[in-house]
Amino acid sequence: MAAGWCGTAGGAGSGLSTNAGGIDTHSHVWRNSVLSHLVVRTVYVCICNGITDHDIRHAAEAGCGSLSELTMRTGVGACCGSCVETAQTLLDEARPATRPVALPLIARAA
């Protein structure tokens, strides 16, 4: 019997789908399953410096406020610059929303 997925025999009752050559034919089940959204995918934004979308989100959460600051912190966009637009978009999306802070004492002093 041909070996199936994860080295187990793929036969009747095994729960695995293999064709005659022992090739896994059920991978599509995982992609369409309820758990497939739990897989964390990393996207490299800056290939030159190996900066990922997670790196940019972490910098934004740590208070990074501009693309130039992001470049100083991570190196994104420092080489060829082809990642600058994507990095700016991710930074804008990940940056916590700022709300105007009311300062009643200063308003009365003026």
Question: Could you please describe the fold and organization of this structure?
Answer:
It is built from five helices and two strands. Strands 1-2 form a two-stranded antiparallel sheet. It has 110 residues and is mostly helical. The protein has two domains: 5-37, no CATH class; 44-94, Arc Repressor Mutant, subunit A (Orthogonal Bundle), CATH 1.10.10. α2 (53-61) crosses α4 (84-94). 16% of the residues are buried. Helix content is 35%, strand content 5%.
Write a brief caption for the model:
With 110 residues, the chain is mainly α. It is 35% helix and 5% strand. Strand 1 and strand 2 form a beta hairpin.
Please tag this protein with its features:
single chain, 110 residues, mainly alpha, Arc Repressor Mutant, subunit A, 2 domains, two-stranded antiparallel ribbon, 5 helices, 2 strands, 5% strand, disordered N terminus
